[in-house]
Amino acid sequence: MSQVERYRSTHPRDRILLATRRHWWAWLRWLPVPLALMLASFALAAALPPIAGVFVFAGVVFPLGLTLYLYAEWANDTMLITDTRLVRMTYTLLTFSESINEMALTSIQEVNAQVPAFDPFAYLFGYGTLEVRTSGETGNFRVTLIPNPDRVQRLIMEDLYVMRQQQARPDGGAQDSGQTLGVFTRPPLSPFVTSYTTADGAFVVRKHWSLWLSGVTLPLLLLLGALFTLIGGMVLEAAAIGFGVAFVLAVVGSAWFWWADWDWRNDTMTISDSTVTLVQQRPLWLQNERDQVLLRQIDNIVAESNGFFNRLLGKGNVRMALVGSNEYKEFRDVQDPLRVQGEITRRQTRLKQQAAQQAANPPRVLSDHMTIYHHTPSAPRIQQPVPAAPPAMPQFRAGTPISNPPPRVARPALSQGRLYQPNAVPTNPPPARPASQPASDKAPSVIAPPPPNSTRPPRLQGKKL
User: Fold this and answer.
1) What is the pLDDT of residue 452?
2) pLDDT at residue number 414
3) What φ, ψ does residue 218 adopt, rounded to 5°?
4) What residues have CB less than 8 Å from 349, skipping those under 6 apart?
């Protein structure tokens, strides 16, 4: 499986925009070395005719093998540019080592493309150096002998621009991770389940199962020896001695097995939607380290696997470069480090998309409160009865005889400029009589107002009324 196909199998939702290697000159420039070995072998064969066949065989086989090795080393180094990240894959055949450097596009701060000044072949063949910088120093990587560095630089910057435009959309441009794992409310008992998803959506990674197996091998041998000792004592009629030795071996083996299993199970790496937590613990409180890193502080992630057996078992390390720090946060001996790397990058990209969406659509607290206030249902109002409209007066035209004239309304009589109302109750009643004065059976006399043209009576002298 090629590097591109392998990456597509682990990141099915990424769209690869460019897959490139180093320039072919990076392989061709080493061809003088096997050619020189071939010429030297042929020269020795000509100088020593008795053993000329050995030198001829060596002069053909070794230069050819070296040429094929140099080609394989050149072909195994791949650089991928996708719609979400920048990936650099490096393989070393002699040491069976693998390194995958993955960087999210949103972490890129600067991309530099330059052509070596004193290299005439660079101008002739069109290769150069590409340097990608982030906010930190450990997350930067530099690729030499890259073909068309200006084109690659322009593609990265355009891809970054499109990525930020997608983040500014209302939906945020979020993508699904594409990974479906079993959900566990507690860690699984099987040591061969090295990664699982918790009920709250966190992705938990444990150490490779080979570390568990290497730790419990000797305890299991002790337990097996205790069983054989017990059986041997019963066969040789030394049950007491066999039982005692078997008991000691069983106790030591059980305690050792518990120690190794507990130590393996409590070294975890938890990837949540906002943090990455690294836990290193040992039994009996000998070690309890808990390191938590925010996803937004991670510059880039490196997944590497060194050695033949590590490559065969799929075991490697995951290193995270932090913003503003020269040190890596590392979790060693995990299964399928490329998958762990992809999980961190996906959650980091999704977190940045959510932050960009919130920045594009800030919450409007005051307007929301006013909307809620205006839409609050008020108390029910009592509807007053509408008064009936008065009957319309009939319309008459001038010169038209009235057949049914309207009834005449009697007007009240006027007396002294006042409205005369018979049997009306006076609005200002007379003052109440004091209790000491006896009531009279006679009705009070009413003095009528004088006529308009009458004369006033003379004022009494010496006494005021």
Assistant:
1) 52
2) 46
3) -65, -45
4) 84, 85, 104, 106, 175
